[in-house]
């Protein structure tokens, strides 16, 4: 181990320790230890792994702080790995000199509006653990090619940009786990383009990643999300979002989870993902999927979607099941109306839902946007859809709306209004003349006007109307 104090670093928060740290990097033993103190730097510490050999940064159990007083990342790890993670594809120099650079147990603070935390490019097995990054722009920024990324037990807090930014990266085998990622203005975990496979985001608390705590003028409506994945110019496959708490404060273009794929030439580019076992709430939209293919959503609890809880558009092969959508009863009558909308989708299955609209029949949260939904569940211009075995409760004004959709089956559902006075006008409203449509075996009760409003050609059987 190499103490940077032995190479002249002072750590008093005022002295420029840049040169001393660089001296220790190039002349030390590879493991740079920052003793307790505040180490101010005025340019990026670049760790060119081919030149420095295997390198780690250690902050003495979190007692050391690195203050970045210039533009750019405080630490930049540069590698030359240009192939996959296949063991047969590595040159000897990668394993001997570049593998698994570690940063652990250190705080990084920005003291410049364009300061960043840590950047990796072309690195094999970058490993970040027990770090705190705050008051920078992007806390962790990955670019170029990377393989086998690990981020665990980190705090990425109150940054003007993004917590974890995968920026047009060619990245396979990555895990983000057990971390707090909060109050980052442009997103908690954000992916822009690139080619990504095998990404797991599990067991994190990702919250309040929007402009609310920054108050940048005119920026409230800038789209953001706790997890924001936009691969219109890339692709992402094979991933998991599981066992996270994803909460926010409302922002006009915000979502808790947002996927944006591309349907160019029939290739949606975003898919083969599971979203399961999460607590998700308090944004314009809780889960927003655009141009995705092959997504499985189950076992989540969703609440407080100011526009909708779930919006799925221009997507195929989406499975939405065993999900509860409701309200936090601790807040009494401070409720938001809820809803699910599938638009221009194909081959989707919805089953095992328990979804309850606002008991008041309307949004009662102060300053919330007015609800623009027609039904609690909306299926618009879709093909080959099933809605089965679900409880659709207190829909206002309609429980289920199907419009201009063909080959659609609704079966075994309970569509009820238990409020007094009743506010659901119609349980199932079916607009336009469909092909292959059928509501059957449903229990319907509590409608003010009529139970079913469907064309005569829609086949009905076994429904219990109350």
Kindly summarize this structure in a few lines:
The protein is 5% helix and 53% strand. It is built from 3 helices and 42 strands. The longest helix is centred in the first third of the chain and has 10 residues, at 18-27.
Layout of helices and strands:
Layout: E1 2-3, E2 12-16, H1 18-27, E3 31-33, E4 37-41, E5 45-48, H2 49-52, E6 56-58, E7 64-68, E8 72-78, H3 92-98, E9 102-104, E10 107-110, E11 115-124, E12 127-129, E13 132-134, E14 140-152, E15 155-159, E16 164-177, E17 180-184, E18 189-202, E19 205-207, E20 225-242, E21 245-247, E22 255-260, E23 270-276, E24 279-290, E25 293-298, E26 301-313, E27 316-321, E28 324-326, E29 340-343, E30 346-351, E31 354-356, E32 375-380, E33 383-388, E34 391-393, E35 398-403, E36 406-411, E37 414-416, E38 426-431, E39 438-440, E40 443-445, E41 450-453, E42 464-465
Parallel strand pairs: 1-3, 2-4, 3-6, 4-7, 5-8, 6-9, 7-10, 8-11, 9-12, 10-13, 11-14, 12-14, 13-15, 14-16, 15-17, 16-18, 17-19, 18-20, 19-21, 20-22, 20-23, 21-24, 22-24, 23-25, 24-26, 25-27, 26-28, 26-29, 27-30, 28-31, 29-32, 30-33, 31-34, 32-35, 33-36, 34-37, 35-38, 36-39, 37-40, 38-41, ...
């Amino acid at each position: 181990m190499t103490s940077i104090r032995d190479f002249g670093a002072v750590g008093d928060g005022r002295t420029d320790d840049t040169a001393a740290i660089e001296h220790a990097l190039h002349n030390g033993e590879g493991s740079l230890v920052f003793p307790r103190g505040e180490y101010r730097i005025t340019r990026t510490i670049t760790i060119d792994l081919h030149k420095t050999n295997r390198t780690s940064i250690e902050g003495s159990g979190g007692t050391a702080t690195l203050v970045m007083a210039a533009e750019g990342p405080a630490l930049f790890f540069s590698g030359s790995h240009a192939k996959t993670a296949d063991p047969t594809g590595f040159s000897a120099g990668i394993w001997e000199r570049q593998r698994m650079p570690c940063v652990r147990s250190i705080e990084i603070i920005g003291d410049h509006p364009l300061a960043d935390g840590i950047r990796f490019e072309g690195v094999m097995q970058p490993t970040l653990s027990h770090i705190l990054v705050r008051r920078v722009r992007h806390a962790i920024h990955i670019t170029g090619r990377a393989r086998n990324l690990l981020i665990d037990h980190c705090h990425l807090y109150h940054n003007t940009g993004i917590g974890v930014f995968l920026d047009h990266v060619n990245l396979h085998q990555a895990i983000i786990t057990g971390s707090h990622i909060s109050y980052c203005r442009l997103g908690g975990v954000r992916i822009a383009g690139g080619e990504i496979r095998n990404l797991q985001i599990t067991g994190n608390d990702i919250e309040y990643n929007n402009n609310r705590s920054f108050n940048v003028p005119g920026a409230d409506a800038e789209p953001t999300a706790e997890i924001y994945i936009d691969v219109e110019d890339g692709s992402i496959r094979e991933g998991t979002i599981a066992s996270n708490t994803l909460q926010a404060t409302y922002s006009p273009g915000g979502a808790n989870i947002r996927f944006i794929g591309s349907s160019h030439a029939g290739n949606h580019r975003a898919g083969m993902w599971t979203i399961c076992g999460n607590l998700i709430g308090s944004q314009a939209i809780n889960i927003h999927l655009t141009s995705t293919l092959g997504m499985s959503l189950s076992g989540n609890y969703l609440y407080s979607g100011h526009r909708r809880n779930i919006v799925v558009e221009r997507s195929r092969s989406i499975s939405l099941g065993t999900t509860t959508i409701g309200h936090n009863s601790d807040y009494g009558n401070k409720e938001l109306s809820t809803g699910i909308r599938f638009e221009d989708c194909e081959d989707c299955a919805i089953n095992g839902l328990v979804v309850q609209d606002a008991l008041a029949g309307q949004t009662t949260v102060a300053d919330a946007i007015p609800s623009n939904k027609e039904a609690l569940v909306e299926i618009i211009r879709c093909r080959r859809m099933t809605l089965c075995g679900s409880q659709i409760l207190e829909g206002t004004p309609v429980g289920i709306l199907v419009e201009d959709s063909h080959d659609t089956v609704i079966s075994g559902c309970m569509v009820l209004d238990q409020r007094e006075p009743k506010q659901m006008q119609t349980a199932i409203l079916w607009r336009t003349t469909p092909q292959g449509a059928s509501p059957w075996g449903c229990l319907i009760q509590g409608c003010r006007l009529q139970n079913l409003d469907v064309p005569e050609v829609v086949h009905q059987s076994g429904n219990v109307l109350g």
